[in-house]
From TrEMBL:
Matching Gene3D superfamilies: LmbE-like (3.40.50.10320)
Domain of life: Bacteria
SUPFAM superfamilies membership: LmbE-like (SSF102588)
Source organism per UniProt: Candidatus Thiomargarita nelsonii
Name of the featured protein: Secreted protein
């Protein structure tokens, strides 16, 4: 059964769990709650990690 997973985190430390759910076909939504998240060096790394997990970066809040 497909699950809807909401991830609310300060960082992507739970990335392996998110990837596991994505691979299982679950719908994963991500909300990153961190100050300075769009700082270019950090944001670029986050986008790379999310793409590698199969999460569409355009859907990040």
């Amino acid at each position: 059964m497909k699950k809807k997973i909401a991830v609310i985190a300060a960082h992507l430390g739970c990335g392996a769990t998110m990837a596991k759910h994505i691979q299982a076909g679950d719908e994963v939504s991500v909300l990153i709650m961190a100050e300075g998240i769009k700082y270019p060096k950090i944001y670029g790394s986050i986008l790379i990690a999310l793409r590698a997990m199969g999460i569409n970066p355009d859907e990040i809040e």
